[in-house]
Amino acid sequence: MAQVRGSARGTGSGSSAAALALVLLCALLRGEFAESAVYTVGDRGGWSFNTASWPNGKRFRAGDVLVFRYDARAHNVVPVSAAGYSSCSAPEGARALATGNDRVTLRRGANYFICSFPGHCQAGMKVAVTAA
């Protein structure tokens, strides 16, 4: 009988350690998400022409959120590659965000966005953000 108690106690200790590890993992994940910042692209002016310089002086991290606010009848937001950013072109079939209040979570490294309405990107409606 003493052996059975010992086994039960050992199992309980293992469960307690697993539960503690799970609680610590949740706390760490919650802390990382709490540190994410939310940025409105273009600040008060929103997503518009000449926003290419908007990121200057800001420090972005992977997990930060960009909010694109704009008139959905006149603009959109298309995530593109570096080549698409440079050439102001979205690849065929690219998914355009078009709600007028779009939220994009930054991934580590370079993140590029353009407005794909004709002439808008060429007029400065594009932004490149690098997240650490």
Overview of the molecule:
The model has no long low-confidence stretch (mean pLDDT 86). It is elongated, with a radius of gyration of 23 Å. It has helices at residues 2-34, 82-87; strands at 38-40, 65-69, 78-80, 101-105, 109-114, 126-131. It folds into 2 domains: 1-35; 38-131, Immunoglobulin-like. With 132 residues, the protein is an alpha+beta fold. The termini are far apart. The chain is 30% helix and 21% strand. The longest helix is centred in the N-terminal third of the chain and has 33 residues, at 2-34. One of its GO terms (cellular component) is plasma membrane.
Secondary structure blueprint with pairings:
Blueprint: H1 2-34, E1 38-40, E2 65-69, E3 78-80, H2 82-87, E4 101-105, E5 109-114, E6 126-131
Parallel strand pairs: 1-2
Antiparallel strand pairs: 2-4, 3-5, 5-6
InterPro entries: BlueCu_1_BS, Cupredoxin, Phytocyanin-like, Phytocyanin_dom, Plantacyanin
Keywords: Copper, Disulfide bond, Metal-binding, Signal
Signal peptide: 1-34
Structure summarized in a few sentences:
InterPro entries: BlueCu_1_BS, Cupredoxin, Phytocyanin-like, Phytocyanin_dom, Plantacyanin. With 132 residues, the protein is an alpha+beta fold.
> Can you identify the CATH superfamily of the largest domain?
Cupredoxins -  blue copper proteins
Indicate the mean pLDDT: 86
The level of helicity is 25-40%
Overall domain count: 2
Kindly name the structural category: alpha+beta
